[in-house]
## 1
Amino acid sequence: MKQLLILLSILAFTLAAPVPATVHGTIHDVTAKRATSDLADLVPGMSGIVVHAYDDTHRAIVASAVVVSSSADGSQLKLSTFKGLRQPRLPEIKTKPADGDTVILGYLYDRVLPIVPNQASFEKAKNALNDLTLIHPDLFAARLAEEKNPRPTKSSIQKMCRQMHLGLVLFMFDNGSDFIDCTSWKRVAHTDLKADNPKKFKQPFYHRFDSIPGGFFDWSDYTIHDYDAYYRKLEKK
């Protein structure tokens, strides 16, 4: 009976995964930094890309888009330079967004960076959110170690999102989990999926290395004393 209840609990969380669906539409009333879409009732903070079609076979990403406001009548979008595939050795695309271009919102929302306190929480998240791709936190820990940066910041997480082509960050707390859009840094979803004993956590989040080193002559104290408090504050940056 106990195993059945656990299975039903996992299935309930899986079915209730709250991440907004990826949607496709077109933009109009385009200015240098704004556009309108007929896509309705979206979550403010959802980000995505604007795609320009040159002909039937050639397309390019020409901008990033973030939902500023949305109603039953449509959505207002903020446009900015797309940084997800930047390659300094290649010329940048000069095409600007224009009326009729395609917008894809909730872009890469199936790829998630999980920030969780311990292994039990990570396994719980993987089982409950198995319709999403949760990359292993070791990958983020390795990047932080390479940069001699033992404490995650908003900028280091966003950099990881760009490098690994991730759409969301999952922060897992004692009273539920938040999904933060990597681009807008806005919360776009919440689930009741709770961390397993967040008071007992690996510094600075769950990973399988011994530790994440700082600089050779850096004697700063990077200890996070309260996991929930630190990452709740980071969410609000």
## 2
Amino acid sequence: WSETLKSNLRRGKKCQYNSAKVRNAMYRPFCRKSLYFDSMLIERRYQQHITFPSLESENENTSICLGGVGHDYFYCLATRHIPELKFSNAANGGTQCFPFYVYDEDGTNRRENITDWALQQFQSAHGSDVTKRDIFHYVYALLHDPTYRTRYAENLKRELPRIPLVGASETFAALAAAGHALIDLHIGYENAPEYPLTEVYEQTATLSDIFHVEKMRLIEDKSAIQINSYLTLRGIPPEAHTYKLGNRSALDWVIDQYRVRGDSDPNRADEPEYIVRLVKRVVTVSVETMRIVSGLPSLSPEETD
């Protein structure tokens, strides 16, 4: 209850339910929840009402989210849903978002968020065929590049990222293609192929027992995850644990968020297999992310200046 909400209550100001305000939100990495996106109930919407003003905007817009100034661990993750303040950073600075589009609050007047000046700089360096979408993809790949992250590790803690112009057009094109693949992978994680993990379960268990999650656990060598006392998924490849979002792997985030806490139950009555299938999909996302990142072109110190 914020002071503004209490004031509205004292004044008798009513909030009328509108089903169009029931929106998708990213609470933590790979953890989608429902949100009632109303200005009276959510006092600090920051710029999300012009980034994702409507359900339709979630189908066409993408936002690159990363930690604000003051974080301990740098990471970024693209989303097509409204991110919670601490989606990318639980410390000071919260989450900073860089969308491809911005809109008026009513969802009209869509415009690209990359300036014409920036487009001119990239076209001057890499040719007139470069588009703003190419630049957006290039930025996402660069923010995943190990060389860039290592060289500017301390800067990335104190300030928002600065984006250099790489020298070679071939390098720019390769990074743009990689960034495109990474974005598609990360925003589409719920539709990613399920990694072929081996299911080991009690033969006498019911379907409701097999897929019900209370608290998942990785076994000691991290090659398997215990969904519950009835089901274990084996064959998790080591690469799945090297894709880090902060000090946790993507799989660690899923294990942490999808568990019963008090009255909060992540199990879905209409889709009981959702969490198990999500685990398999996030393993695929993790493995594919590391494959793409390991294939990024090598950047010289001059190219990251």
